[in-house]
Amino acid sequence: MNKIVKKTALSSAVSIMISFTSLNAGSIGGFGGALEVTQDAQWAADITDRALSYTKQLQQYATQILQYQQQIKQYINQFQSYKMMLQNIGNLPQEQWRQFQNQVLKLKHAVEFGQSVSYTAANFDKKFNTTFKGYENYLKEAKDGKLDFFKEYNSMYQSTKDTVHGALKSLKLQESDLQSDEAVMAALQNQSQSAVGQLSAIQAANQIALHQTTQFKKLQKTIMTQANLQASFLVKESEEKALIKAKNRAWRENADLSVNPSNDKNF
C-alpha cells in the first residue's frame, strides 16, 4: 500500500510542477505581470510542497505504527508467559519482573506515540481542509460523505484514554502516574511486593496492550486512507488546472484577431 501512495504522491508532484511550469511560460502584461505570475506560482508551489509533506509524514507514521504493532504483539505473548509463571511458582523472580517493567515502559511509549499521531493527523486534516477549499466536497464524494477524519482520530484518542484509565483504576493508580517513567517504575515496584499485586499489574498491562493493537490497526488504516485521498486530490486539482490552461491556450491560438485588431490589447 505504501508503494501505491508514494507513486500517487510522486505523480502528483510531477504533474503539479509541469502545471506551474506551463503557467510561468505564458507570462504577459510586462515586467509587473510576469512578477505577479511568478509570485503566484511560488505561493502555489509552497502550498503544494507543504501538502505533500503532510502525505509523506502520514506514510512515515503508518510505517512506525506497524513496527509498534509487532512489538506489542510480543509483549502480549510475554505477559501471558508471566501470568503462567505466576500460577506455577506463585511469584515472579526479580529478573522476570525487571523485564516486565521495561516492557511496560515501552508499552507506555507506544501508547503515547499513538495518541500523538492521532492528534497530529487530525491537525493535518484540518490544515489541508483550510488550504484547499474544494477538498471537503471531494472527500464527501470519495467516501459518500461518511468519513470524518477529525471525528475518527478523536474517537480513537478517547477510547485509548478510557482504556488506560480503567486499567490504572484497577490498580488503584492515577493517570498522573503515567506522567513520567520514574512514576511508572515506582508504581510497578509497589505492585511487585505480592503475587496478587504482580498479577494485577500484568493483567492491566495486557489489557492496555490488547487494546493498543486494535487501535493501531484502525489508526494505520485511517492514516493511509487520509494520505491516499490527499494525494489523489492534489493530482485532480493539477489535472483540472492543466485542462483549463490548455483550453485557454487553444482559444487564443484559434481566435481570429484580424476581424477586430483592437482585440490585441486584451492579450
Could you explain the architecture of this structure?
- By secondary structure, this protein is mainly α.
- The protein has one domain.
- It has 7 helices and no strands.
- Helix 3 runs antiparallel to helix 5.
- It is elongated and about 90 Å long.
- The two termini are 47 Å apart.
- The N terminus and C terminus are likely disordered.
Give the SSE layout.
Elements: H1 2-25, H2 30-89, H3 94-131, H4 135-142, H5 149-170, H6 181-191, H7 195-254
Helix pairs in contact: 1-2, 1-7, 2-3, 2-7, 3-5, 3-7, 5-7
Question: What characteristics describe this protein?
Answer:
7 helices, mainly alpha, 267 residues, disordered N terminus, 84% helix, disordered C terminus
Q: Determine the N-to-C terminus distance.
A: 47 Å
Q: Which structural class do you get from the secondary structure elements?
A: mainly alpha
Task: Sketch the topology as an H/E string, one letter per element.
Answer: HHHHHHH
**Outline, from the CA principal axes?**
elongated
- Which segments are poorly predicted (pLDDT under 50) over 5 or more consecutive residues? 1-41, 256-267
Treating each run of at least 4 consecutive H or I residues as one helix, how many helices?
A: 7
Helix content: over 70%
- Average pLDDT works out at 75
The portion of residues forming beta strands comes to under 5%
Major beta-sheet overview:
none
Count of extended strands: 0
Oligomer status: single chain
Number of domains: 1
Gyration radius over CA? 28 Å
